[in-house]
Write a structure and sequence with these properties.
By secondary structure, the protein is α/β, with parallel strands linked by helices. The chain folds into two domains: about 55 residues; about 300 residues, Rossmann fold. Helix content is about 40%, strand content about 15%. It has nine helices and twelve strands. A six-stranded parallel sheet has the order 4-3-5-6-7-8, sandwiched between helices. Helix 1 packs antiparallel against helix 9, helix 4 packs parallel to helix 7 and helix 8 packs across helix 9. The protein starts with a helix and ends with a helix.
Length: about 375
């Protein structure tokens, strides 16, 4: 190969590298422009009772005391970008009381259970009985339809699997059977707004061996679960996230349990949601706060279905808004933050995509240089 040809190769390599860099930059620009805002104010006006959902947007609403604006799960920021990108329908199991599945804000998001399974819909019940309120209220927080009527559920694309474990007195065998059934039905998240005082090795192993994420209530005894354990809240498992309750000022609710085994906090007082017979109303408790975290977990799986349960736990914990009022009381000292968490997820996914692009483009670049070099050697 002549000297002139050798000189020619270097500019060619530099030119190829420049083309690669420009392509990479255009990829990054395309990703950053992917999100498009919706007219959020007009969108929210369609929901008659959205102002009552301070957990989604706290503008200072007064419930017993004036709220602190911004002490919420930062859901409205998520709504601004919800129309961008593809979201999968996620299945969420609610192990609780009966759910009023005919509710106008729930019926399209319920995965009805067929066959002879003991968890299928109960017949001939009194829907005005308060013991049936709990599961219906939880379901509304997680998955009330985005239908422009009354309230917003957290997960737009969801199928709730209603598993009634409390028709009579809940027992470990029933709970384990419900967990196994939920996994069989393809649930990614299990909402556990309940607790038992007695440790069960069988329940521990059932949860540990599951691929599902378990979002569990810390309990309402105003105690540390490190000293006074409840289960599954006190299980030290990578696929369990335990939830405390805060009020509308960001203070730990006076009834809420706490401790190092409590991961995050969420709104749990004066929470407005669905009730039986197409009604709506308020409720409170760490069980209610748990539904907010279940909703966030559902959103994450909806955006990226390939994630493992422990990865979702990590994302939720990393995305919290730290509060001075929670320091030393729970593990993260923070309230869940939907927008922060999904931004962390998006950055992670973009980084993975870019790494793959770098790898792919580098291989192409090397093959191109080899191809050119071979040609030049024959000149």
């Amino acid at each position: 190969m002549g000297f002139k040809n050798k000189i020619f190769i270097l500019p060619l390599i530099l030119l190829s590298l420049l083309i690669y860099i420009l392509n990479f930059d255009s990829f990054a620009i395309e990703e950053s422009n992917k999100l498009t805002n919706v007219n959020i104010s007009d969108y929210l006006k369609r929901y008659k009772s959205f102002d009552k959902q301070w957990g989604l947007k706290n503008s200072g609403q007064t419930y017993r005391k004036a709220g602190t604006p911004g002490i919420d799960i930062n859901y409205v920021e998520y709504l601004k970008i919800m129309q961008s990108g593809h979201m999968e329908t996620v299945k969420i199991a609610v192990l609780d009381t009966y759910i009023y599945t005919e509710h106008k804000d729930l019926e399209e998001n319920i995965l009805l259970i067929n066959g002879s399974n003991k968890f299928k819909k109960l017949e001939n019940i009194d829907i005005n009985d308060e013991k049936y309120y709990h599961g219906t209220h939880i379901a509304g927080i997680i998955g009330a339809s985005h239908n422009g009527t009354e309230i917003l559920g957290i997960v737009p694309k969801v199928k709730i699997i209603p598993l009634n474990i409390m028709s009579n007195e809940a027992n470990i065998d029933t709970i384990i059977e419900a967990i196994e059934y939920a996994e069989k039905m393809g649930a990614r998240v299990v909402n556990c707004s309940w607790s038992v005082k007695e440790y069960s090795e069988e329940l521990y192993n059932t949860i540990k061996d599951s691929n599902m994420l378990f979002v569990v209530a810390a309990g309402n005894d105003s105690k540390s679960i490190d000293e006074y354990p409840l289960y599954p809240a006190s299980f030290n498992l990578k696929n369990v996230i335990t939830v405390a309750s805060i009020d509308n000022t960001g203070e730990l609710s006076n009834f809420s349990n706490y401790g190092n085994k409590v991961s995050v906090a969420a709104p749990g007082e004066y929470i407005y949601s669905t009730l039986p017979n197409n009604q709506y109303g308020y409720s409170y408790g760490t069980s209610i706060a748990t539904a907010f975290v279940t909703g966030l977990a559902g959103l994450i799986f909806s955006v990226e279905p390939t994630l493992k349960a422990e990865e979702v736990v990590s994302l939720i914990e990393r995305g919290v808004l730290p509060l001075e009022s929670l320091k030393g009381k729970i593990k993260t000292s923070g309230i869940i933050n939907v927008s922060n968490t999904l931004n962390i997820l998006e950055c992670s996914l973009n980084q993975e995509n870019r790494h793959e692009d770098i790898k792919e483009n580098f291989i192409k670049f090397v093959m191109f240089i080899l191809h050119i070099s071979r040609k030049m050697l024959h000149i």
